[in-house]
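User: Hello! My lab partner asked me to get a predicted holo structure for this protein. The small molecule is flavin mononucleotide, SMILES included with the sequence. Please write out the structure tokens.
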Amino acid sequence: MKTRITELFGIQHPIIQGGMHYVGLAEMAAAVSNAGGLGIITGLTQGTPDGLAAEIERCRTMTAKPFGVNLTFLPSIKPPDYPGFVRTIIDSGVTIIETAGNNPAQYLPVLKEAGIKVIHKCTSVRHALKAQTIGCDAVSVDGFECGGHPGEDDVPNFILLPRAAEELDIPFVSSGGMADARSLVASLAMGAEGMNMGTRFIATQEAPVHENVKQALVAASELDTRLIMRPLRNTERVLNNAAVEKLLEKEKALGPKLEFNDIAEELVGVYPKVMQKGDLDAGGWSCGMVAGLVHDIPTVKELIDRIMREADELIHQRLASLF
Ligand SMILES: Cc1cc2nc3c(=O)[nH]c(=O)nc-3n(C[C@H](O)[C@H](O)[C@H](O)COP(=O)(O)O)c2cc1C
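Assistant: Hello! Below are the structure tokens for the protein in complex with flavin mononucleotide.
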């Protein structure tokens, strides 16, 4: 399939693996890129710019295809070394960056000068337009369904994607709730040029996470996620568990007085415990509603090949036969 996104990134299929903390390691990114999609290494998971440089090198030993790096700009009292991470991305020769979180405007000039393609992930049309204005090459439009941070507007993709298509000139991919050929064909119908998947890629053979996490996604239904940190205007969609229920009770009890410190116990240092040790109840960890559509743990290549084959069937048989 050829779209503006496959052309922009030099990839075979219009399928991107979104950056995921403690999931977007070299194994994950290389598997997606080798299968013809765009794999993404998650920058902050590597801890330091040197750690990221090493992970990029490791990924290069696993794939000759293009892959990208995610850099998430978080609200933080003690921010990570963002200028150092950006420098590492440029020096390493990576040609694609997925930015997320705060506006990446201050880094756009150096990234563009280095010839790096920038796809910014955003949860609203106004942020997507802003990304277009500051010079991003593409955006990833993340609907309310998504795992991770859906923003505060709560607009699902059936509205958000056509609205993005109405306003944007640069190409965009759908993100949030994407799992299969139906997601891809629907996204294309709504004006997207491809799709970004997070949660679905965790339940694959190559995802470098504990087996418990993969099984939890297969077992979960679309009713099993919760929104946390809404009172802090830093909403995150996570898989429900005992720690999340405790956190939500605190949010309810404290109301507007809630501060991050009140819920830090359920959130700080959780990812390595969940993703590496398989301790699913260690705290809140991102997961999309799309878990309800995850029923198996294929290889990444099986997943992507299946999506592309079924998308072809959907378009040329089911949809074509309706006319
Ligand atoms: C476990 C997990 C960790 C994530 N970590 C990040 C992250 O560090 N940075 C980021 O920009 N997005 C992160 N995301 C969001 C994904 O990149 C993607 O936008 C989202 O998962 C799309 O929704 P879906 O899960 O319904 O596919 C994460 C998602 C999950 C499920």
